[in-house]
Amino acid sequence: MSSRHGSTDRGQTAASPSFLRSRWAALGVLSATMLMTILDGSIVTVAMPAIQRDLGFSPGGLSWVVNAYLIPLGGLLLLAGRLGDLLGRRTLFLAGNTLFTAASVLAGAANGPGLLVAARFLQGVGSALASAVVLGILVTLFTDPRERTRAIGIFSFTGAAGASIGQVLGGVLTDALSWHWIFLINLPIGVATVLLALPALPRDRGAGLSAGADAAGALLVTSGLMLGIYTVVKVERYGWLSAHTLGLGAVSLVLLAGFAARQATAANPLMPPRFLRSRTVSVAYAVQLLTLSAMFSFQVVVALYMQKVLGYGALDTGLAMLPAAVAIGAVSLLASPRLVGRFGERAVLVAGLVLLAAAMIWLTAVPVDADYVTDLLPVFVLVAGAGLVIPALTGLGMSSAGPQDAGLASGMLTTVQQVGMAFGVAVLTTLAAARTERLRADGRPEPAALTSGYHLAFAVSAGLLVVALALTLFALRRRPAPAPRESETPTSVTI
């Protein structure tokens, strides 16, 4: 099978056993990269006190250990996705993984704040290059709707596992060895991923820079996104109505508006306007933004609640949240592909959003002296709805992607995820902190003031999910479930 985009040049046919094996091997490589990226985002949080103590970060400067990674990751995804279409997605994937692995070693060897922040920035760049094209490679490998659904379920499972594994692993490595190892652990994973990717991923030539080298558009969208994400992550320090936030936010919007205008007139636009004309894709992006804003904030705020109110340690918090990862992973891996195959993405998405909204509503009443089994464990079971939502949204968001723009679609979907996570954490933690401060000033005890602030954050999360549910019900068109092939029943998918 050979074609200009996403093809293999190893003389295999789409039906040959060797080609089928290579596709699933490629999925393993892609999933390992996603696991490494998400794990790196969560593993750092539990090691922050140790990093501050050893390297002498100021309280304000410590946030840059996280922000220096998030800003290039979110800002470069759209550009990286398009570059994958132009230069070859395999090439960009390998370059991104190599840079991420090298930067991880640099971060692990850091002996001062400046070097660590610089290494984290390079990690973000490498992660953006690799993760922007992952879904683009996946959808070009798995063209059969039922196999694609199965592959997306497996891919989503690794993403769900990465968040909780990172929290647990971060606590174990920091306590048993040192914080340096939370970065050095990426070395064997990264090297193995690159070595396995060389034979597993199909070679694709890309369309060439002449087919879409919109330098002005790239500058506008990258600077606009990076500045916007920087503004959002610094809201907690400056406030929503400060000159810093309003001024930089306005500049970011102007840059993004300039990018949109540029795309309507450019000869080779970075993001062709036709790409967003699909109602299904546009609504899926909106639902993705709302859902990720709520769910990533849930992870952060629940962790804060367990540590600051219930007195859990970092490792205890990671272990306590492990049932959520297991539930999400099991649903995304085992149930979601079958349900999507039988009922379609829209119905599965509705069911998942109902479960997630119920979990957030439950948390709005969690007490100061919560019991884990009766007050928190039911929530971690309900958030299994994310195992339905994430694969369904991924399938909808990539539904209009052809071989020529699968990298762009992948970059767009991942950009929406990152912006949603950054925006959600900034909004919800700021709202929670503001309510807590008001209650402290009124003389409320510290645990009660904190819990009330977290209740507000959970209530806003529930509201975001209800809006996402309304969009799904009233704005998202029904898409028929893929018809079963003659050799399989409607609910069975074999690898």
UniProtKB/TrEMBL annotation:
Q: How does it sit in the membrane?
A: Multi-pass membrane protein
- The portions of this protein that span the membrane are 24-50, 62-80, 92-109, 121-142, 154-173, 179-201, 213-233, 239-261, 282-306, 318-335, 347-365, 377-396, 408-434, 454-476
Q: Which GO terms describe its cellular component?
A: plasma membrane
Q: Which residues form the Major facilitator superfamily (MFS) profile domain?
A: 26-480
On whether Membrane is a keyword of this UniProt record, the answer is yes
> Which terms are listed as keywords in the entry?
Cell membrane, Membrane, Transmembrane, Transmembrane helix, Transport
UniProt GO molecular function = transmembrane transporter activity
**Presence of the UniProt keyword Transmembrane helix in the record:** yes
Q: Which Pfam families match?
A: MFS_1
Query: Where would you find this protein in the cell?
Result: Cell membrane
Which CDD domains does the UniProt record give? MFS_MMR_MDR_like (cd17321)
Q: Which domain of life is it from?
A: Bacteria
Q: Which InterPro entries match?
A: MFS, MFS_dom, MFS_trans_sf
Q: Cross-referenced PANTHER family, in alphabetical order?
A: BLR6921 PROTEIN, MAJOR FACILITATOR SUPERFAMILY MULTIDRUG TRANSPORTER MFSC
> What name appears for this protein in its UniProt entry?
MFS transporter
